[in-house]
Structures are given as structure tokens and as C-alpha cells.
């Protein structure tokens, strides 16, 4: 198993764990993950810029964050409770290695959104095309995904659902702390997610 396929397996395991935290048999609930994808695509287009009547500069960092969010939903669409994560990861890897692109990022993003709207599926090849056109590597995706997924778990564990979670501490939002923690770690470590969690925990006000 290649390194990237192994990382995809890790992300699938993390996504299943997060979804299970929300609902024990989540893949039987028919959640509309495809809808979450196209809504995120629309939000991302605003961050990228599409209005010809005003000057707009792409907010690349925000676009990358949105792509990471979309990958959460894409993984959720691929998990069916029957196919092994290794098999899903192998198929995903093949698709991500064959990006499909339009004439520019906006057109490629519309391919991704279109597949979600009309076919209710995650188009990993168009997703890979978006990554390529925004200058996002697989390592960027892995780092961003594991970080965001771990932060979601951290929020749940520290009172997000009942409203006791503190989102801003030491003058920074938890997302900013997350970025600093992730930058200080080795993403190839087998316990990368655990290190991210412990890094957040060490900073969080007791």
C-alpha cells in the first residue's frame, strides 16, 4: 500500500469515527452529503472571486480550507458500511491521480458541484483538478483534513454541543491555534492526529 493510499485509509477511518459520533449507524440515515458539497462549492466561489463587475483577489487560504471541508463530505459519500476502507482508498487514489480540469478554477469547481447536484456523487477527479489549479498538494489536503477533523473531535469533547466550549483563547480562535499546532508537527508520524489533539489540549484553558 502506497503512502498516500495509507493516508486516505486514515482519513476514511477518521471520517467514519466523526460521523459515528453524530449517529451510530450514520450510513443508513441517508444524509444528504452531496448537497453539502455543492453548497460548499458555492461558498468557495465567493472566496475565489467570480464577479466581473468588481476587482476580486482569490483568497487562496480560504479556498483550500473549503476544499478540505468538501473532502469530509466526499469521504462520507464513499463510505457505505460494506466496502473496506482499503478498497475505497485505492479507488480514490486512482481518481485523485487523474485530475479533470476545466479552462480555469471556476469551471472545474462547477464540474465538482455539477456532479453533486445532478448525480449526487463526489467527483474526485474534478476535486483533484481544483486542487491542482489552486496549487494544493496531497500533503496539504492530508494536513488540513486531519487537523480539521481532530479539531471537530476536540470541540465535541470540550463542550461544543452544550455551549460550554471556549472558541477563543489567548486572543486567537481555535482555528488559528490549530494552524500553529499542525505546523510544528511531522505529518508523516503514525500518531499525527493524536499529536494534534494533545497539542490543542495543552493550549486550551483548563
Kindly describe this structure:
This protein is mostly helical and 206 residues long. It has two domains: 134 residues, Orthogonal Bundle (all-alpha NTP pyrophosphatase fold); 63 residues. It has nine helices and two strands. Helix 3 runs antiparallel to helix 6, helix 5 packs antiparallel against helix 6 and helix 7 crosses helix 9. The longest helix is centred in the first third of the chain and has 20 residues.
Number of helices: 9
CATH hierarchy: architecture of the largest domain = Orthogonal Bundle
User: Looking at CATH, which topology of the largest domain would you report?
Assistant: all-alpha NTP pyrophosphatase fold
Approximately how much beta-strand content do the residues carry? under 5%
Global mean pLDDT: 91
Number of beta strands: 2
Query: Which sequence of SSEs, written as H and E, runs from N to C?
Result: HHHHHHHEEHH
Pfam families: dUTPase_2
Protein name: dUTP diphosphatase
Organism: Pseudoalteromonas xiamenensis
Question: Would you spell out the secondary-structure blueprint of this structure?
Answer:
Elements (H helix, E strand, L loop, with lengths): L2 H20 L10 H16 L11 H19 L6 H12 L8 H15 L4 H11 L3 H20 L10 E2 L2 E2 H10 L8 H12 L3
Antiparallel strand pairs: 1-2
Keywords summarizing the entry:
206 residues; mainly alpha; all-alpha NTP pyrophosphatase fold; 2 domains; 9 helices; 66% helix; dUTP diphosphatase; dUTPase/dCTP_pyrophosphatase
Amino acid at each position: 500500500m502506497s503512502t498516500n493510499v495509507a493516508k486516505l485509509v486514515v482519513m476514511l477511518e477518521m471520517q467514519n469515527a466523526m460521523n459515528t459520533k453524530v449517529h451510530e449507524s450514520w450510513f443508513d440515515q441517508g444524509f444528504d452529503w452531496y448537497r453539502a458539497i455543492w453548497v460548499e462549492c458555492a461558498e468557495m466561489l465567493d472566496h475565489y472571486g467570480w464577479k466581473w463587475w468588481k476587482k476580486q483577489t482569490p483568497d487562496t487560504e480560504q479556498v483550500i480550507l473549503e476544499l478540505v471541508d468538501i473532502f469530509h463530505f466526499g469521504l462520507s459519500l464513499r463510505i457505505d458500511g460494506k466496502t473496506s476502507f482499503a478498497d475505497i482508498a485505492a479507488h480514490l487514489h486512482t481518481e485523485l491521480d487523474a485530475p479533470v480540469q476545466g479552462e480555469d478554477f471556476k469551471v472545474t469547481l462547477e464540474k465538482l458541484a455539477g456532479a453533486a447536484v445532478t448525480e449526487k456523487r463526489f467527483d474526485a477527479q474534478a476535486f483533484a483538478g481544483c486542487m491542482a489549479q489552486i496549487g494544493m498538494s496531497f500533503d496539504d489536503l492530508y494536513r488540513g483534513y486531519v487537523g480539521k477533523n481532530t479539531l471537530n473531535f476536540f470541540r465535541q469533547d470540550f463542550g461544543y454541543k452544550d455551549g460550554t466550549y471556549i472558541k477563543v483563547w489567548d486572543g486567537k480562535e481555535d482555528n488559528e491555534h490549530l494552524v500553529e499546532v499542525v505546523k510544528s508537527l511531522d505529518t508523516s508520524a503514525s500518531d499525527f492526529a493524536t499529536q494534534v489533539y494533545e497539542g490543542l489540549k495543552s493550549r486550551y484553558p483548563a
